[in-house]
């Protein structure tokens, strides 16, 4: 096989692999990303810099957690804030603690990379 043909085949393979990975990492709907960025900006000063950092942050989280696990962890985090039996039920399950811990690790990584 000619060197140019080999190069083209390798290049096309690299493009298709990169495209597949980008699709895998982009399973968060736009509305979920926007909600995260909006909340993050409110917590970090509503500046252009916070917009950039918060957008970076959700991108990092999306590379670590598939969207389904992100939704689970966010739900646990929300319910954990509830007082009484509902909050206690969530706080006392291993699955809920694991989901929340996974989200916190992803957020910590995003903090390091983006802020």
Describe this structure in words.
83% of the residues lie in helices and 0% in strands. It has 6 helices and no strands. It is mainly α and 115 residues long. It has one domain. The protein is globular. Residues 16-23 have low confidence and may be disordered. It starts with a helix and ends with a helix.
Label this structure with key terms.
6 helices, 115 residues, globular, mainly alpha
The share of residues in extended strands comes to under 5%
Rg measurement, Å = 19 Å
The average pLDDT is 84
Question: How helix-rich are the residues, as a percent range?
Answer: over 70%
Biggest sheet overview = none
Q: Could you name the ranges where pLDDT drops below 50 across 5 or more consecutive residues? A: 16-23
Shape: globular
The number of helical elements comes to: 6
Domain count, please report it.
1
Distance between termini? 49 Å
Question: What structural category do the secondary elements indicate?
Answer: mainly alpha
Secondary-structure element pattern, one letter each: HHHHHH
Query: How many strands appear in the DSSP assignment?
Result: 0
Give the SSE map:
Elements: H1 3-25, H2 30-43, H3 48-64, H4 67-80, H5 85-91, H6 94-114
Question: What would a concise description of this structure say?
Answer:
The chain is built from six helices and no strands. It has 115 residues and is mainly alpha-helical. α3 crosses α6.
